[in-house]
Each structure stands twice: as C-alpha cells, then as structure tokens.
Amino acid sequence: MTRPLLLCLFFCVAFSRSKPTEKKNRVMEALLSHVQHEDDKGFEYDHEAFLGEDDAPEFDKLPLEESLRRLGLIVDRIDVNKDEFISEDELQLWIQSVQRNHTFHQMESQWDHYDADQDGLISWDEYKRTKYSDGTDLGSEFDYSRVMEREDRLFRAADRDADLKADKQEFIAFLHPENHQHTREVLVQETMGEIDKNGDGFIDLKEFMEDLNIPEGEENLPEGAETERQHFLDKKDKNKDGKLDKQETSDWLFRPDLSYSDAEAKHLVTESDTDKDGKLTKTEILNNHEMFVGSQVTNYGEALLRHDEF
Ligand SMILES: *[C@@H]1O[C@H](CO)[C@@H](O)[C@H](O)[C@H]1NC(C)=O
Ligand SMILES: [Ca+2]
C-alpha cells in the first residue's frame, strides 16, 4: 500500500490547472510524501498520519491541557476491543481510517463543483465541461488534450459499472487511481507505454536505464546509476528474465511489500512503548503526546529560542 494521505501531486490533475510537468507525470511522483518522515525535524509526518491533514494543524494550536484531553478521547476510540491497550493493529486501523476519511473529504470538497446538475453523479461529460470548457484560459502553450485523454482513461477505469457516470466511490478512485486495483492498471500501462520504447510489452534493462537518461555502454556512470541497475536485476526483475512484465512493473510502482499504515503504526508503538511490552497504554501515549499530536505550548520554549529567525 502507498501513502495516499499526503499525496496530491500529479494525480490531483482533476483539481489542478497548473501545467503538468510532462516527463514527470510518472506514478512514482505520487508515491513520495510531501512531508519526509524525519522525526528529528519535528513530528509533522506523524501528526498528519495520526490526526489527518485537516485536523493536525488545528490540534497544534490547542493549549496543552485541551490537546491532552482530546488525545485521551481519541485513544479511547482507537481501543476498539476495550482492553485498555493500544495494539499495533488497532493503531494501523485508526491510521487507515484517518486516511480514508481524508480522501473522502477531499472528494466531497470537489463534488459540488463538478456535479453541475446536482443529480448525485458526475458524468464524464459534466466533468469535462466543468474542467475544460468553463471559459477559463487553460493556457495555450500546453496541449491539454493529452491530459484530457488521460483523465478519460482513468475515468473509464474508475467507472466500474461503465455508465460513464461516477458516483462518490468511483470518483474517489478517479481522483486517487494509485489506491485502487482497477485504476492502477491504467497507471501501469501508462508507465510501460512511456518506457517500453520497442513496444514489446516489457521494460528491459536498456529501456529502463535510458528512461533514467543513462545511455547503454556509458563509461562513467553517474552516481546512483549502478545502484539502479542492480536494483533492476536483483529486485524489480523478480523472475530473472531480464525484463519487467506488467506485474513486475506494478510491484515496482506500488510496492506491495510496503504498507504505509503498518510502518507508521509500528513506528508510533516503538517510539512510545516505555515498558517494551509491544503495546501502548493511554499513559504511554499521553507521555509522548508531542509525537502524536504536538501542541503549541510544548513548542513554545523552542519557538522563543528561535525568535531571531522571524
Ligand atoms: C471516519 O469517518 C467515520 C464516519 O464518519 C467515523 O465513524 C470515523 O470515526 C472516522 N475515523 C476517524 C479516524 O476519524
Ligand atoms: Ca451529475
């Protein structure tokens, strides 16, 4: 699983008017979080995972006591089996729920804009008309027909009942194709289409390296190129036939071995589990509130120390 929560890079084409970077529209872009997970530079990543992108900043403004009170209430909600312990599994379910709700709210915030006739469905025509011909100058230097064709493909893939109208769940898949099996296929095809220059339906090593702008037979390989080559051979090409098929490409793009919610749940437990019993009590979480929810008050001293920066 990927980390959709914070991701609104190229896949937010649906809502963005800016000129997409032509070469960079690779799905990989979408898999990079805009907040890097570096705890030594603050806990923004953890806050967004635990509270959601919308609520995290609000929490940050609360006085310490109120922040702790609300965190306590959240802990009670996370403890679904009511055994007074928060397990990794319970945390992971919570993080997934935060993520799903965020995605849903994001979709809701765009819904009315596109559902022009307010019939509770967004037809492809409705979407297209609203987005591409509402009189806004889309800029002449960029060919939007390609973006539209791409969105057309995604829309059809997301439209499971094939009536060319998206309900809310279908619209979510359209907005976040990287999170759904049936829309991922389009992204895989797209990536293969770009890299598989000889069109044999596979990405071979030569094509892969050329896509990274590393010509074959290059003497002085740039830094990282050898690593990329080894990764291709050792990791990406699972069946060792020298090329990537659809499944291998999909595994490369979507990393089924990496679960964002699982990794984050493990991280939160590891960092707060004072008595090392593998699960958290409310006390352990409250004692580590800074990582879970943060608070202006706790950062107050730090902010004062840094006042010369402002
Ligand atoms: C997500 O939304 C559902 C339905 O509104 C709600 O019951 C649930 O508690 C929410 N999850 C989180 C993590 O806020
Ligand atoms: Ca409609």
UniProtKB/TrEMBL annotation:
Q: What is its main location?
A: endoplasmic reticulum
Entry-linked InterPro entries:
EF-hand-dom_pair (IPR011992), EF_Hand_1_Ca_BS (IPR018247), EF_hand_dom (IPR002048)
Q: Where is the signal peptide, in residue numbers?
A: 1-18
**Residue ranges with Basic and acidic residues bias:** 226-247
**Region entry Disordered: which residue ranges?**
216-247
The compartments listed are: Endoplasmic reticulum lumen
**Record's keyword terms, sorted:** Calcium, Chaperone, Endoplasmic reticulum, Glycoprotein, Metal-binding, Repeat, Signal
Among the GO molecular function terms of this UniProt record, one is: calcium ion binding
SMART domains, per database record: EFh
- Function in brief: Probable molecular chaperone assisting protein biosynthesis and transport in the endoplasmic reticulum. Required for the proper biosynthesis and transport of pulmonary surfactant-associated protein A/SP-A, pulmonary surfactant-associated protein D/SP-D and the lipid transporter ABCA3. By regulating both the proper expression and the degradation through the endoplasmic reticulum-associated protein degradation pathway of these proteins plays a crucial role in pulmonary surfactant homeostasis. Has an anti-fibrotic activity by negatively regulating the secretion of type I and type III collagens.
Quaternary state and interactors: Interacts with PCSK6 (immature form including the propeptide); probably involved in the maturation and the secretion of PCSK6.
Belongs to which family?
Belongs to the CREC family.
Q: What is the protein name for this chain?
A: Reticulocalbin-3
